[in-house]
Amino acid sequence: MNANTYVVGVDFGTLSGRAVVVRVSDGAELGSAVHEYAHRVMEQTLPTGERLGPDWALQSPQDWIDVLRTAVPEAVAAAGVRPEEVVGIGTDFTACTVMPTRADGTPLSDETPGEPHAWPKLWKHHAAQPHADRINELAARRGESWLPRYGGKISSEWEFAKGLQLLEEAPEVYARAERWIEAADWIIWQLTGVESRNICTVGYKGVFQDGSYPSEEFLAELNPGFAGFVGKLATGQVGDDAGGVRLAALGGLAGRLTARAAAWTGLPEGVAVAVGNVDAHAPAAAADAVRPGQLVAIMGTSTCHIMPSDQLAEVPGMCGVVRDGIVPGLWGYEAGQSAVGDIFAWYVDNFGTDGHERLTELAEKQPVGGHGLVALDWFGGNRSVLVDHNLSGVIVGQTLQTRPEDVYRALIESTAYGARMIVETFEKSGVPVEEFVVAGGLLKNPFLMQVYADVLRRPLSVIGSDQGPALGSAIHAAVAAGAYASIEEAAAAMGKRTENAYVPDEARADAYDRLYAEYRRLHDFFGDGKMLHALRAIRNEAHTS
């Protein structure tokens, strides 16, 4: 199968979807195409004009289908391969991006487009923070065994917090929702006609540990109407059926392309479809970083840190540790920073009239600490290690002499400090980080990469592709199609990375140690949330009064 066969990887991102055609034998990327979402991210209003509240972020299912209709056939054409030479297709999705549907998969937004809660809630929908707080408080008080697997707190981004918000703010929509399903699994359903759940999103975003979800008793104590919520998730054991829904292992065969999906994509009916995956997890295979201790930081609008390990530990503030969550047979850890590239974009869009390239050029000329600033990277809240999306950004040290490039550099450094906090938390918990591998769009900025190497005091390896999620999904497709026996085998043949691409400078690293100490002081001072929560509450009241 490997000699003259190809697979397609489709990466469903925050603003667009990308398809890439990959040769099975060696991972060569032969053609790609991008489709920009027509609705992008709905944060202010719905298409029907209804206004959204603070911290909302929604998407349109039709945009995802349009990626299949446009990007996939365009990528195949660009690759110059015949559709019948394609043996598999794999997908990855932002997570937790979750949606209410009917039992047949029909999105509720098709039925009631003027109801905000009927639309899919994007990963960065943070309006469920109060619901996450209640879940965490109750779980801690009851001593729920699953809570330490998530660093002591679950996120407002995840299935249960968003589901509780749905129940309490739109009970009629909650009642109509026969399924509460990750977009990663919904798109596979549309491709195959077979409903399944991938073990990755079920574990990290669905609080599924040791074969079960949080108990009905626990959910009823949150809200009596929430007791039956797990029924909307419709998941059984790995390989089993529960209500006709299978919990599927990564790299597995989810089903085969239906006639309808074949018409969308231009691929032959019956092509193998891989089990769905999370966009931040797929690049591990693309970088051939699927062994214990290889931490992959996927750096884009946000950063997700994922790492396989042969050790199980309770790491404070992690997004989760899930058996088989990255590759079968190992524990998979996930941590993250809710905003990274988004911070730089916010600054340039609102204050940095010189643009990214010019600000980077100016910032790069400064000595470490020359701007006199330190910032907290919480402009999108804190995912790890505080798990509080009601926190906000802080910049300390500005004077009348502070220039735009000073702030820009301080913001870049703040995200590197946040990454160091995560690495140190892993290692203090007994989970060693052997290699720091970078993937994602921010690789294009060498200055930023060098700052990370200096702040982390360790070399950076970099992925050998600028399409890590799509390539990773293609590698999973090759396994699902039977071209390789395992994800590890396929990653070794098709993945690629450059080791020690950036090496820390000892003098700069010493200087950053002093700044990082000040970051830690700020982190601990503002991390209790008292001031930042109060400011957010005042803002929200001003918008709702």
UniProtKB/TrEMBL annotation:
E.C. code: 2.7.1.16
Keywords recorded for this protein, A-Z: Arabinose catabolism, ATP-binding, Carbohydrate metabolism, Kinase, Nucleotide-binding, Transferase
Start and end residues of each Carbohydrate kinase FGGY C-terminal domain: 296-481
Claim: Ion transport is one of the keywords in the record: no
Pathway given in the UniProt record: Carbohydrate degradation; L-arabinose degradation via L-ribulose; D-xylulose 5-phosphate from L-arabinose (bacterial route): step 2/3
Catalysed conversion reaction: L-ribulose + ATP = L-ribulose 5-phosphate + ADP + H(+)
Claim: Transferase is one of the keywords in the record: yes
Carbohydrate kinase FGGY N-terminal domain boundaries: 6-196
InterPro entries per the UniProt record, alphabetical: ATPase_NBD, Carb_kinase_FGGY, FGGY_C, FGGY_N, Ribulokinase
Pfam families, alphabetized: FGGY_C (PF02782), FGGY_N (PF00370)
Family: Belongs to the ribulokinase family.
Name used for this protein in its record: Ribulokinase
Organismal lineage: Bacteria, Bacillati, Actinomycetota, Actinomycetes, Streptosporangiales
